[in-house]
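Progress narrative, Year 2. Work on TetR/AcrR family transcriptional regulator from Peterkaempfera bronchialis advanced from sequence curation to structure prediction during this period.
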Amino acid sequence: MPSARRTSRQNDLLERLVALLTAEGFASFTLDGLAERLHCSKTTLYQLAGSKQDLVGEAVRHYFRSAAEAVEKRVAETTAPSDRVQVYLNTVAEQLRPLSRRFLDDMAHFRPAREVYEANTRHAADRVRQLITEGVAAGAFRNVHAAFVGEVAAATMQQIQRGEVAARTGLSDSEAYAELASLIVHAVSS
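Result:
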């Protein structure tokens, strides 16, 4: 159900669902368990989505949609091209910080949720490419090959999203994005 057609009660329920799932994951929950934890009926949950899988998908899409809006709002408030890359990736890191490892692992094993995270990762990589291109054109960055730097960022972002960086370094997704921001900005700065 599109958010424009939801009641304020349904929007509140979706926000509480997102908070619960991002903190505790979703694989082990049943609809009965979710209804109990959220203090609502299963019927109320079914008004958001037709099944547990659909409910998880809706919650994941809602989370990433809200996160993307927060990231773009912060970037829009930033004018210096060199700051925009840093702000973009650091705000992505901030948005990923509340996600528990269990939630990230559950997303990795549930294809519809994983596809949402993958699509958001691809969008983020494209956005970094765009911000680097803008920075080079404005003279804020060295004359680097923006598409190549973007590809390196994209490959790293995909490894973060798949949990590979966490497994090899012990960094959370949020910490890895913060490190990537620092690396990219220092690599392209004049």
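DSSP finds ten helices and no strands in the chain. The radius of gyration is 18 Å.
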